[in-house]
Structures are given as structure tokens and as C-alpha cells.
Amino acid sequence: MVRSKILTALAAACTVAVGLSACSSGKEQAADNGGQPVSGKISISFLQKQGDQEYFVGEAAGAQAKAKELGIDLKVVNLGNDANKTVSEVNAAIAQKANGVIIVVPDPAVGPQVVQAAKAGGVTLLTADDQICVDGTDPSKCAKDKLVPRIGFSGAQMGGEVGKRAGEEFTKSGWAVEDTAIISAWKQDVTVCTDRVNAAKAAFKSGTGKDVKSIDVGTDNSATSAQDKVAATVTANRAVKHWVVWGCNDENVSGGVTALQNAGYTADNVIGVGLGAYLACKDWGSGKPTGMKAALFINGYEVGALAVQTMFDKLRNGKDMPAEAFAPTKMVDAGTWKEAGVKCSA
């Protein structure tokens, strides 16, 4: 999902169906497995990793609402983080005569098996959020005509917004560079996460003009993992007085901020910028001081709706699916999250 500045500009400038602000890359993909348009009832399986996370709960809700509007039979399945279940559920969708499969893969490595199964079963395939490559190549290095069409967000754009806001908060803080360190926390084999983190680093450096010590922390993208890994990182870097934290999602940042708080760092010595806002808003709603200074609101509901609309257009009308289509994002903080419509995780 490495995108150029031109693509980012396009993403902000164009509009796709279902009333969502989105944009394709302009190049259609050959990795689609669709056949002739479907004239009867359309059946789609929506397979999601980590379906209990607030973002994916919203994504499923958006998919279900759009499916109801379009008269589609939609089955939503939570894959958790199970790569084996991913393949078995694709095969189950084929056995149940689904016309299409929309999938958020737990692991990009399972992509080729998913693609092969869909192709063999004559099922149209569309990915949401994370990319997969038809030949098993790391999606960041995959030839563009080998990527399965995808609905989601631009990692470069999202990470850039996070890094920009973190840079603004850092400049406002007046912290000395030598007393500060940045933690980037993410599951390091997930390409879209790496895209986000790299873009955040570049935007922070560009905005501040400062070389702040940066520490990469590998997690499984859960808050618990982030808290544990960041706690160990802090223990090994006790000389650091101030911390900046970002990552692939809200879980990484929330876990990191919690670890710093438990290590004795006060809220005014931590700058956390989340990605999702569904956990960040819980801190803001408490009314207590927090190191979570802002978060980029990404609305899973819109991605789910756009994915179903895109699949419907392909199955019913034979409309080519775009290489990528992006839903909009918005930076929020303690003073703006409610107005933006952020829903906090339970």
C-alpha cells in the first residue's frame, strides 16, 4: 500500500459511490476472479480478522447496512488471528455458493491460498484494509497487477497525519531532543502497518526538523502486547524523560501510553497519537489527564459499506473493481471526538 503523494492527493479529491469520499488508483487489477454478472440474489461472505475490535465491529455494521439496502445476503465471519480458519472459511463460502468474498486477512502470507481457492471456486475476491499479493510476494514489493483489489485507507496518508500531529505536539511541548524518544509500535510483518509507521516518521521529521531518537517495537497489534513490549522498552531506556508514541492502530498507542503511565511518566511527559480513536476516546471521556493527545479517526463503517457496494457493482453490473479505494479520515482530540462521531470501544 505504498502510495505516492499524487495518489494521496487523488484520494482526497475524488468521490466514489455510496456517498463516501474515496478514490481509486486509476489502474484496474487483473487479480479479480469474477465471471458473468449475477442476475439473481447476490450472496457475499465478509471474512474479518480481529472481528471483536471496535474498528472491525463498525466495519461489519457498515457492510451489513449496505447489504440490507442493496438486497444482498451477507454472512460476516470473525477470523480472529487464525490463518488456518481463513482458508477454511473461504472454502466454506465457496461450498455455500457465495458469489463473492470480501476478506481482511489475519496474515498476508495466507493470501496466495485465499486467491487460489477463490479462483478455483469461481468466486469474486475483494480485500478490505490489508493487501494480499497473488503470488505470495510481500505486498509492499508486489507488482501492482498482482495485488488483489482493496478497499480501505491510504497507509501513507494516515501515517503522515499521525506524524504531523505528533510533531506539532512535540514542538508545542518545548521538550529537548536529547531527553526525548519516539516509540513506533506495530506488527512488523503487516505491510499496511509498516506503511503507516514509516509515513509517521517522515512527517514528524519534516514537520519538526529534529532528529529524535526512534525505537521500533514489535507487537501483535493488541493493546496487551503493546503494553508489555513498551514496558520492556522503557525499562531499557530509563534516561529518557519524554516519550512520543504512535503505531499501527489505537491498540498499540493505548497500550504504550498505559505502559508509560505505569512506569511513572505523567501525562505531560507523553505524546500519544492514536490511529482509530475508538480507544483514545475512552481516555478523553474519563476526564482525567492522559498522554493520549490525539488520534486519527478511521471509520470502519464506511469501509465496510464501500466494500459491499464495490462488490455489488462488480457482481451485478460487471463494473471493474478499482485497484484501491479509500475512505476519509479525520484527526480528533479530547475537544473534538464527540462532534466527529467517534464511538468508543466497549
From TrEMBL:
Subcellular location(s) of the protein: Cell envelope
Molecular function per GO: carbohydrate binding
Gene Ontology CC annotations of this record: outer membrane-bounded periplasmic space
Periplasmic binding protein domain mapped to chain residues: 45-319
BP GO annotations: L-arabinose transmembrane transport
InterPro entries the UniProt entry points to: AraF (IPR026266), Bact_Solute-Bind_Prot2 (IPR050555), Peripla_BP_I (IPR028082), SBP_2_dom (IPR025997)
Alphabetic keyword roster: Signal
Keyword Signal: yes
Signal peptide: 1-30
Pfam families: Peripla_BP_4
Gene3D superfamilies: 3.40.50.2300
Family: Belongs to the bacterial solute-binding protein 2 family.
Protein name: L-arabinose transport system substrate-binding protein
Provenance organism: Longispora fulva
